Amino acid sequence: MPVSDDLTLQVANMRPQDAGASIARMSAASMTKIGIGEGDLVELIGRRHTAAIAMRPYEEDHGLNIIRLDGLQRVNAGASSGDHVEVRKAEARPATRVVLAPAQKNLVLQGSGEALQRTFLHLPMVAGDVVSTSVQQRVRDPRLLNLPAYGLQEIRLVVVSTQPRGIVQMTAETVVELRPQFEEPKEARRADVTYDDIGGLGSSVEQVREMVELPLRHPELFQRLGIDPPKGVLLYGPPGTGKTLLARAVANETEANFYHIAGPEIMGSRYGESEERLRQVFQEASQNAPSIIFIDEIDSIAPKREQVTGEVERRIVAQLLTLMDGLEPRQNIVVIGATNRRDAIDEALRRPGRFDREIVIGVPDQNGRREVLAIHTRGMPLAEDTDLDEIARTTFGFVGADLGALVREAAMDALRRILPDINLKEGIPTEVLEKLTVTQDDFTSALKR
Ligand code: ADP
User: Fold this and answer.
1) What is the separation of C-alpha 174 from the centre of its chain, rounded to a whole number of angstroms?
2) Residue range 45-56: average pLDDT?
3) Which residues form the CDC48 domain (predicted)?
4) pLDDT tens digits, 141-154
């Protein structure tokens, strides 16, 4: 078979444990077709372009025309799962200089670029990419922890610029400049949450994707079939199970604008204020469609009318009903409501054409907890003895938010252990940083609190 310049493959999701390593999994036939082998670089071209290291496929994918990418790579390539990307053989040039900045608005970093240079050593990157320090797990560079306060957590950075341009690879000679503040990437790439950041929800993620992603991305399918796409989806589940996370991830992965309404907060005091606010959000969302409107704790603004005592609630329910009914099927807006009380919301809201789809977001089981723990410890220097399986086994009843808090607590314990050895004015010596690992004991004592 002659080597061809390019190849089109369908994007599928990477397994979470492989995420963050800049690899793209594809079949041997695909690699042969573009004349590369395992470990070689490929350029991925969707609505944007990025680079990755080609790797062999998962067992079940042999012979399929798919390419597995993680959440950041999908963002960087401008392609969602199910889309097609062009895949080409690529060469990376050694970077002489790379400028990085936090990819999150609320994150300020003061570390040296030098530690990052070792973290991202040999990784391919393109200006505009969002990269994650979870690659650190592969290289385990303790110097990355020079980044104070966030050193124990995964950090996402935007590649602001590179010299030379195009696909580059960090080398031992690359000069890395770290800007302290968030920079809005030139082309808006939002990578704060992707599907890789959600663990233990099993088929609920697929259900949400089907109900929300499909109509937002392919409204023409629904038109062609002559059916109306869903306007409203209700997510039911206890607090902290990831409902907000999931809604954000769907918005990011479909490149839809995200509008967040916090139920209790919208209850204004002035007459008509809450309805006005709802109308505003719906109006903005339709001007900027495709959009997702997320109404958290919807039961607080739309409780059952027979239980309603306040005039305000009655008016808000009426307003929300009017707004939902006014949404045109072709407007490309999906409203997602979240509540932990299945029967607490007004039945009128659950009629056809309103919130007529329901998805249960449950408390994770042991496997689910293991997935969530793996996500929250990404980029964390875990000691050899840490046993995430054991922690998952002993945290019955914990939801995602509880597990996140547990991991943070354990990391704080690890930090406290080295504090006596540190003179904060002088910076942290490498030997001390190398000792900074989160141990099984840290988890056990965090659990007791
Ligand atoms: P909810 O909207 O269901 O109350 P959130 O989505 O606000 O819950 O979750 C709060 C935080 O808890 C998240 O930002 C995340 O750090 C963590 N979390 C919750 N659920 C999960 C999950 N399924 N996987 C990973 N992290 C989770």
Assistant:
1) 29
2) 92
3) 110-185
4) 444 433 333 345 67
Structural contact between residues 205 and 13, judged by C-beta atoms closer than 8 angstroms: no
Residue with tokens 């080398």: 171
Q: What is the token pair recorded at 144? A: 């990355």
Q: What is d(CA 24, CA 45) in angstroms, rounded to the nearest whole number?
A: 13
Give the pTM.
Answer: 0.73
Atom of ligand 1 nearest to the CA of 371: 24
Asked whether residue 4 carries a pLDDT value surpassing 90, the answer given is no
Give the DSSP letter of residue 57.
Answer: P
**Atom 27 (ligand 1) nearest CA:** 400
Mutate to test the pocket of ligand 1, among 197, 245, 258 (most ligand atoms within 8 A of CB): 245
Q: What is the pLDDT of residue 136?
A: 43
Q: Could you give the CA distance from residue 433 to residue 292 in angstroms, rounded to a whole number?
A: 43
Percent of the chain with pLDDT over 70: 87
The single-letter DSSP state of residue 421 is: G
- Tokens, residue 36: 């590369």
State in Å: Cα 365 to ligand 1 middle: 15
Q: Which atom of ligand 1 is nearest to the CA of 238?
A: 3
Distance CA(246)–CA(329), nearest Å, equals 23
Residue 313 has pLDDT above 80, yes or no: no
Residues with Cβ within 6 A of ligand 1? 198-201, 237, 239-245, 338, 372, 375, 400-401, 404
Whole-angstrom distance, CA of residue 24 vs CA of residue 12? 10
List b or e across 142-163, with b for residues whose CB sees 16 or more CB atoms inside 10 angstroms.
bbbbbbeebbbbbbbbbbbebe
Give the pLDDT score at 349.
87
Structure-block tokens of residue 33: 């077709």
